[in-house]
Design a protein that fits this description.
This protein has 372 residues and is α+β, with helices and mostly antiparallel strands. It contains 9 helices and 15 strands. The strands form 4 sheets. The chain has a 5-stranded mixed beta sheet, covered by helices on one side. A 4-stranded mixed beta sheet has the order 4-1-7-8, with helices on one face. Strands 3-2-5-6 form a 4-stranded antiparallel beta sheet. The longest helix is centred in the middle third of the chain and has 31 residues.
Length: 372
C-alpha cells in the first residue's frame, strides 16, 4: 500500500492549526496572594468596558494561589479586586498574566509577568501621584491661609505654587504619553491634559492606539473624538446644524451666512449659562446692527423650561432645540461635553474661535467690527 505522506502532513498541520486556534479562545490571569491571611480570599474580576459590570469571582487556595479564565482578546482592561478600594488594574493584550500581589494592597509593588502595559500604567500613575500629593498639601495650606488674615499675603504665592505644580504634572504626563503612545495605559491619563492645549499629544496617542486596537471601544471613542476636534479647529468650515426652532420650523445654521455668528450651546438648567446671559444680551445688542448674530442651541429636555428661559432672559436671537439633552444633534456635531460652550464663525461659515464668552467674545468682535 502506498502511503500519501503529503496528505498526512496536511492533515497534521490542519489539526495543529485548529488546536492552536482553539487554545486562543481563552486566556488566564493567574497569581498568588502574599501576606498574613491568604487562603480562602474572594477575588473579583470585571471588564471596565462592560456596563452594567459583569463580575467573576475566584477563591484563593491555601497557598494564596488563584486563577481566572477570560475570553481571548487583542485588548482587554480588567479590574481585579479584594474590596472596593483594594484593587489592581490589568491591561491584557493577548497574553496570559501571572501575578504576585500583596493582600493588604494589591497595587503595592505587584510582580506582573505578561503585561508590560500594566507596568507602564503604574509607572505613570506613581509619577503623577507625587504631584497629587504636592497639590493636596498646597490646597490645604491655601485653605488655612484664607481662614487666617495674618497669612493673607501667602495666598498669591500658594496660588502660583499650585499652578506651577499642576503644569509640572502635565508636562510629566505629556512626556510619558509621547514615549508610550501605543500603550493602552494612555487611556487612563490622556484626559488629564486639555485637548485644546495638547491636541498634538491627543493625535499621537489616538492614532497609535487606533492602529493597534481599532475595535476596542475606548480606543475608537478617543479616535473619533480627536478626529472631530481636528475638524473643529479654527480655519475649518463649521459643521452644518439643522434643528427645529421654538415653533418647530427647521433652521439651518448655514442660513445665517453673511453674518458673523456665535453658536451658543446652553440650557435653561445651566446656572453658569443663565448668569452670563445678561452680558451676552448686552454684547448682542451692541453688535447686532453691524452684522453679528447668535444661533442658540439648547440642551434642554423640557420645551416649556426652554421657552420660559428665553423669555425671562430676553434672548432675542435665533434659538433651536430638539429636547434631547446631551444627545442634542447640534451638540454631538460639535463634540460638546460641557456648557456654556461657544463657537464663533465668520461670514463664510469658517470657524474663527471656540470656547469663549463675555470679555473674550467682545474683544474678538471689536477686532472684527471696530470699537465704535
Amino acid at each position: 500500500m502506498q502511503i500519501n505522506f503529503k496528505r498526512i502532513i496536511l492533515i497534521s498541520f490542519g489539526m495543529l492549526l485548529f488546536s492552536n486556534l482553539y487554545a486562543q479562545d481563552s486566556l488566564f490571569i493567574k497569581g498568588q496572594i502574599l501576606g498574613d491571611k491568604i487562603d480562602n480570599l474572594t477575588l473579583a474580576l470585571s471588564d471596565i468596558t462592560t456596563s452594567p459590570p459583569v463580575v467573576t469571582t475566584a477563591k484563593s487556595g491555601v497557598d494564596g494561589s488563584f486563577s481566572f479564565k477570560v475570553p481571548s482578546a487583542k485588548l482587554a482592561i480588567y479590574r481585579l479586586y479584594l474590596t472596593a478600594d483594594n484593587f489592581l488594574m490589568l491591561l491584557m493584550t493577548g497574553q496570559d498574566i501571572n501575578l504576585k500581589l500583596n493582600s493588604e494592597k494589591l497595587n503595592l509593588n505587584p510582580e506582573i509577568a505578561g503585561s508590560d502595559d500594566t507596568h507602564i500604567l503604574y509607572e505613570i500613575a506613581n509619577k503623577s501621584s507625587l504631584f497629587d500629593q504636592q497639590l493636596d498639601s498646597i490646597n490645604k495650606a491655601y485653605g488655612a491661609a484664607r481662614s487666617n488674615e495674618n497669612l493673607a499675603d501667602q495666598l498669591p504665592l500658594l496660588q502660583s505654587a499650585y499652578e506651577q505644580t499642576a503644569e509640572n504634572q502635565k508636562e510629566v504626563l505629556r512626556q510619558s504619553l509621547m514615549a508610550n503612545p501605543a500603550s493602552p495605559s494612555a487611556l487612563f491619563f490622556i484626559d488629564k491634559l486639555d485637548i485644546d492645549a495638547d491636541l498634538a499629544v491627543y493625535e499621537k496617542v489616538a492614532g497609535s492606539l487606533f492602529a493597534k486596537f481599532p475595535d476596542y471601544k475606548l480606543v475608537s471613542e478617543l479616535h473619533s473624538r480627536v478626529e472631530l476636534e481636528k475638524k473643529l479647529q479654527p480655519g475649518n468650515p463649521a459643521p452644518e446644524i439643522i434643528m427645529p426652532d421654538q415653533d418647530g420650523k427647521l433652521i439651518k445654521l448655514s442660513s445665517m451666512r453673511g453674518k458673523v455668528v456665535l453658536i451658543d450651546f446652553w440650557a435653561s438648567w445651566c446656572s453658569p449659562c443663565r448668569r452670563e446671559n445678561p452680558e451676552v444680551v448686552r454684547i448682542y445688542n451692541r453688535f447686532k446692527d453691524k452684522g453679528f448674530d447668535i444661533y442658540g442651541v439648547s440642551l434642554d429636555r423640557d420645551a416649556k423650561s426652554w421657552h420660559n428661559a428665553i423669555a425671562s432672559d430676553s434672548l432675542a436671537w435665533t434659538h433651536v432645540g430638539d429636547m434631547k439633552y446631551w444627545q442634542t444633534e447640534g451638540a454631538l456635531a460639535y463634540g460638546v461635553k460641557s456648557i456654556p460652550h461657544t463657537v464663533l464663525i465668520d461670514r463664510n461659515g469658517i470657524i474663527i474661535a471656540r470656547k469663549f464668552r463675555s470679555k473674550a467674545l467682545e474683544e474678538k468682535l471689536e477686532e472684527i467690527f471696530g470699537k465704535d
